Galactokinase
Amino acid sequence: MSAAQWVEPVDVHAVTGTAEALFRSTFGGDADGVWAAPGRVNLIGEHVDYAGGLVLPFALPYVTVVAVRVRDDAILHAVSTHTGESWQGPLADVAPGHPSGWSAYVAGVVWALRRSGHLTATTGFDVAVHSTVPVGSGLSSSAALECAFALAVADLAGLPTDESGRRPLIDASIRAENEIAGASTGGMDQSVAMLARPGHALLLDCRDGASRHVPLDFRSAGARLVVIDTNAPHRLVDGQYGNRRATIEKACADLGVATLRDVADRDAAVAALSSPAAQRARHVLGEIRRVYEVADLLDRGRIADIGDALNRSHASLRDDYEVSSVELDSAVDAAREAGAWGARMTGGGFGGSAIALVPTDRVDAVVENVARRADTASLPTPQFLHAEPSGSAHRL
Ligand code: GAF
């Protein structure tokens, strides 16, 4: 078996150069500017953002970069190094399902900003995209693309881009994903891409949008957070994610609450529901409690003690929410067996990535065990990424 495969973050200037070169070769001339936004992992608080819960994600040192130039004919022309494909069309034609694929995230942002009155009907854009966020790995490459482009559009349109100015950009990015791309995701990913701070996680209350930054320094705790990309593709636009969200919304209707966060008696609420809604609600209610628990430990500088909550989160996602996969379970079990303090799937699930909190001197043993176990079970070869809490979307 080959040595464990690490994906190293690429220097942002090299990423910028690639996007600028693609821009010049496609459109001729220079872009008006270049913007970047990060991928993310969620430390804890999974499948609770659309239930009015609390989440605790942070930005990764892997980014999506867009080189953008304004045009005045209401046309969008977007090209990406990922597929080599381009999409060109009138912005007036953008609608749910059109365009499809990655260009929906770009076109959807303009569509949403036009509808919210932030952009004039004549404005168009040339866009070149390059990303170091692995695509389809549950690390929010789509939110990174939406947010990098939303920030570019705002800057070029003279809109405010301070923290409060970013709120409508987050909303536009969520609408692009929900309404044009057709993925009924909850908003955590766009929020952290826009609001993250280096060295911190973002404690986000998805009921009212309030947030605060929680210090997160793995190194000072003698640890690393390792991202395990299982290389088993994850999809948010297939039926399973939407199915979980619909189950939670129906449970709220049955319980007579606006969100599960509003439930007063957790045990009574679960008892009042039938299967599988009861198990799904039990996950959501327990996971929200675990976010409080982890945020409290982090506030007290006790990173080494959060592992147990990570493990309980994974068990709940696997058994009650049923969004894990054989690849994720294998990665989590192997990481713990080799000395991780805690491990869990992260993001939407059904494939994608896991995270493991690992004492520094066990990192090599953990990644080797995860890779070996995948190999033995004939699962896809995983790759590993570094999770240093990083900054939000910005202009380069
Ligand atoms: C995906 C979604 F995009 C988020 O909104 C969130 O629901 C997450 O899955 C699960 O916590 O990343």
